[in-house]
């Protein structure tokens, strides 16, 4: 049985109404907990057409955010970031993070969409990645690094015959957790998440320094996956990308040496995104 979130404490009861969790069982489930309650926005945002309020319960192995850090997260407001409303204490004494969520993400499109197994349209790739990079520029300017950017954390508004990849609105989710704890969690679980993890962060010794360049590598791998229509493989070559401009765009982001990897601001001006 799920916990009950006391919305009035967060002053959100006028904005959200509770819906059954089972109606959207996969919303915002991830490394850092499961959804306990989901609330639908009474007045949908003009950025994401349908909003949900998710309460993600921290595992005991992961520390909750301090009040100071939590305040800095709530101050992060950008059209390409999900909203974080703060923490709430649950009846069992553990802490939950109250955050905006959405049932549609890039992974669901890549795995289940009509273009499954096929490269996505160039204009659709350009639209999604430009919005992701815009969000990364904002985060990196404020010294926030995701380190686990992946298709599951790129949420989209609902795709319909009227809303396609070319004009879909995008937000980044699951940012702002303690990066050291998150890195340990990713390495412990292994699997497909390691594909998007920057190579310098996969090392055990010396202890890797977490820098914004790690997110750029992840963004490059996501772009490659959108181009190929499948998850990247260690044997893949950039020469598989037939478009020279797009190939250069990805190459600049996936350089193994982080000091040679391009930053979010300069790659945002690349000719591929300006076409």
TrEMBL record:
GO terms for cellular component: autophagosome; cytosol; membrane; phagophore assembly site. This is Protein kinase domain-containing protein. It holds the Pfam family Pkinase. GO terms for molecular function: ATP binding; protein serine/threonine kinase activity. Residues 21-273 form the Protein kinase domain. GO terms for biological process: autophagosome assembly; regulation of autophagy. Keywords: ATP-binding, Kinase, Nucleotide-binding, Transferase. It comes from Tigriopus californicus (Marine copepod).
């Amino acid at each position: 049985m799920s916990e009950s979130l006391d919305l009035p404490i967060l002053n959100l009861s006028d904005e959200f109404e509770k819906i059954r969790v089972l109606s959207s069982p996969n919303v915002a489930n991830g490394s850092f907990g499961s959804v306990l309650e989901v609330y639908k926005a009474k007045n949908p945002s003009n950025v994401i057409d349908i909003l949900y309020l998710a309460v993600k319960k921290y595992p005991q192995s992961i520390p909750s955010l301090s009040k100071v850090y939590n305040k800095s997260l709530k101050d992060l407001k950008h059209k390409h970031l999900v909203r974080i409303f703060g923490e709430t204490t649950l009846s069992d004494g553990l802490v939950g993070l109250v955050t905006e969520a959405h049932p549609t993400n890039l992974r669901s499109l890549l795995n289940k969409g009509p273009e499954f197994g096929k490269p996505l349209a160039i204009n659709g790739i350009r639209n999604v990645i430009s919005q992701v990079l815009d969000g990364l520029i904002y985060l990196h300017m404020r010294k926030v690094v995701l380190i686990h950017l992946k298709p599951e954390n790129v949420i989209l508004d609902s795709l319909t015959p009227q809303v396609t990849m070319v004009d879909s609105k995008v937000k980044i989710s699951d940012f702002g957790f303690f990066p050291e704890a998150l890195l340990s969690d990713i390495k412990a679980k292994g699997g497909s998440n390691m594909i998007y993890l920057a190579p310098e962060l996969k090392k055990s010794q010396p202890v890797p320094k977490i820098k914004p360049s790690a997110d750029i590598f992840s963004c490059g791998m996501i772009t490659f996956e959108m181009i190929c229509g499948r998850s990247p493989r260690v044997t893949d070559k950039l020469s598989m990308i037939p478009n020279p401009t797009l190939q250069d765009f990805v190459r600049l982001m996936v350089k193994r040496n982080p000091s040679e990897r391009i930053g979010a601001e300069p790659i945002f001006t690349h000719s591929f995104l300006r076409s």
